[in-house]
Specification:
Blueprint: H1 10-18, H2 26-36, E1 41-44, H3 51-63, E2 75-78, H4 82-95, E3 103-106, H5 112-121, E4 125-128, H6 130-138, E5 149-152, H7 155-160, H8 164-172, E6 179-184, H9 189-198, E7 203-206, E8 217-223, H10 229-239, E9 245-248, H11 252-264, E10 269-272, H12 278-289, E11 295-298, H13 300-303, E12 313-316, H14 323-330, E13 340-346, H15 351-361, H16 391-394, H17 414-423, H18 448-451
Parallel strand pairs: 1-6, 1-7, 2-4, 2-5, 3-4, 5-6, 8-13, 9-11, 9-12, 10-11, 12-13
Bound molecules: adenosine monophosphate.
Adenosine monophosphate binds near residues 24, 28, 48, 49 and 52.
Length: about 450
């Protein structure tokens, strides 16, 4: 099938062709004709499937005729994060280049004044995160009575982030007669139930069964103790052919810690988390896309919707506590038919979450085979470098000691203990500043600062 078979106008087809696309993706093939027929839509599709264009393309067509009035947008797209909202806005720019549609982006971290000016001029397409939109609505700066098309994107994520009450408030401000497009990467029963509140006789489209990990992603799991995680991650990055990678942490605080640690160890890394202002986020993302650094440490919220087509690796520095997040995270690699690699670092504390993931994807994440830990700098050890001596990390590099059960470490040979004592002074440089780096009296380990010469 070609884009020209979908009922889109010449102008849009030209813009699609300028963007370098000629064949619609499966979600576009299924969704576009129904959206053009003004049907409500319930779409189950992950990011990376071309789902954004599946609603932006027909919306440009629908909105091509008619004029907007001041503060009364003609369509509304709700996104859970600023980055996703910005990406949707970019797509309207790309595909709407031969149309004269006006748009505004209402996201946090950007001045209200600028947004008010855009609203006053009248917008055809309003793209917003729920909180900021409600702020404007409550101040009377935006009236939603004229909205003809509503898109609720990434509904499962909206729910996870606690935005659904805001979404419901917003929908109450909209006219009952409208077209609604509802997208979610997964379709658990509560999302389906919720969707029925917003949709009327929707056409259902789905491009991959919910929670399917793409076949182009090779997944692996490595189990280590908590304090070995950073060292293991460095070993993994060195052992794998990493062109560019996202590294996910569960907590914002850890994003900063891990970023500093990686930078100190000579990796070119950046960080992205929800507390950063919009300017820093955009700048970081632009630098990452431009290849100024090839590793981006991030939290789930910050990484949501990042559109970086050729990501070679995803590392889960922490096992996500929601299994859905695992699918979202690893879905950042192996996109558009390219091979990708997703490696998860786990501790024995994570077994429960690994079980959730196994249940969701239908199999346990396969154990990593043959990680080599051969970097000269790591012959100087610290609390962070014990992974080199751990059986899991030594597999494939000749380490044949029996594997201890989860969470327990094998006793080290006495020669190794001696070597550790002798060489631990320079380890100060290797020491990280995170909470998991210092340990007293465990396994003969002596913290570096006790051994440092005065
Ligand atoms: P999305 O699922 O909307 O996040 O889109 C993922 C990526 O696919 C984006 O980089 C889009 O520009 C790209 N894309 C969208 N439509 C197509 C298409 N028909 N063929 C190839 N790539 C596409």
């Amino acid at each position: 099938m070609k884009f020209s078979d979908l009922g889109l106008s010449e102008e849009i087809l030209r813009a699609i062709s300028d963007a370098g696309y000629d064949t619609p993706t499966p979600i576009q093939e299924q969704a576009i004709p129904y959206v053009l027929m003004n049907r409500d839509l319930l779409g189950c599709a992950q990011t990376g499937t071309g789902k954004t264009a599946s609603f932006t393309l027909p919306m440009i067509e629908i909105l091509a005729h008619g004029r907007s009035r001041a503060r009364m947008p003609r369509s509304l797209i709700l996104e859970p994060t600023r980055e996703l909202a910005a990406q949707v806005s970019d797509q309207f720019e790309t595909y709407g280049k031969y149309h004269k549609l006006s748009k505004a982006l209402l996201i946090g971290g950007v001045s209200f004044n600028e947004q008010n000016t855009a609203l006053d001029r009248g917008v055809d397409v309003l793209i917003a995160t729920p909180g900021r939109l409600l702020d404007h609505a409550e101040r009377g700066k935006v009236l939603l009575r004229d909205v003809k098309v509503l898109v609720i994107d990434e509904a499962d994520r909206m729910m996870d982030m606690g935005f659904m009450p805001d979404v419901e408030k917003i929908v109450k401000l909209l006219p009952n007669i409208r077209q609604t497009l509802f997208f979610s990467a997964t379709m658990p029963p509560e999302i389906r139930r919720l969707s029925s509140k917003f949709l009327s006789n929707p056409k259902e489209v789905s491009v991959s069964p919910p929670a399917t990990a793409a076949e182009t992603i090779s997944q692996a799991l490595i189990k280590v103790s908590a304090r070995d995680k950073r060292k293991t991650l460095r070993d993994l990055i060195r052992a794998e052919e990493v062109q560019n990678a996202l590294i996910f942490c569960n907590r914002k605080r850890d994003v900063g810690i891990l970023h500093r640690s990686l930078t100190r160890h000579g990796f070119k890394a950046g960080a992205l988390h929800g507390d950063m202002d919009q300017y820093s986020r955009t700048e970081t993302l632009d630098q990452f896309k431009a290849g100024k650094f090839n590793i981006l440490v991030c939290s789930d919220v910050a990484a949501r919707g990042l559109d970086i087509p050729a990501m070679s690796h995803v590392f889960n520095f922490d096992v996500p506590t929601h299994a859905d997040d695992y699918i979202h995270r690893i879905g950042r690699t192996g996109r558009a038919g390219k091979q990708g690699r997703a490696i998860t670092i786990a501790t024995s504390e994570d077994n429960k979450y690994l079980d959730f993931i196994a249940k969701l994807i239908g199999y346990p994440i396969p154990a990593l085979e043959g990680l080599k830990t051969e970097q000269p700098e790591d012959t100087t050890e610290d609390s962070d470098s014990i992974a080199a001596a751990k059986p899991e990390a030594r597999r494939g590099s000749g380490g044949r000691r029996p594997k201890p059960s989860d969470g327990k470490t094998a006793k080290k040979p006495s020669s190794e203990r001696k070597r550790r004592r002798k060489t631990s002074a320079p380890a100060a440089a290797e020491q990280d500043d995170g909470s998991d780096s210092l340990s007293f009296g465990k396994e003969g380990h002596v913290p570096a600062f006790l051994l440092r010469k005065p």
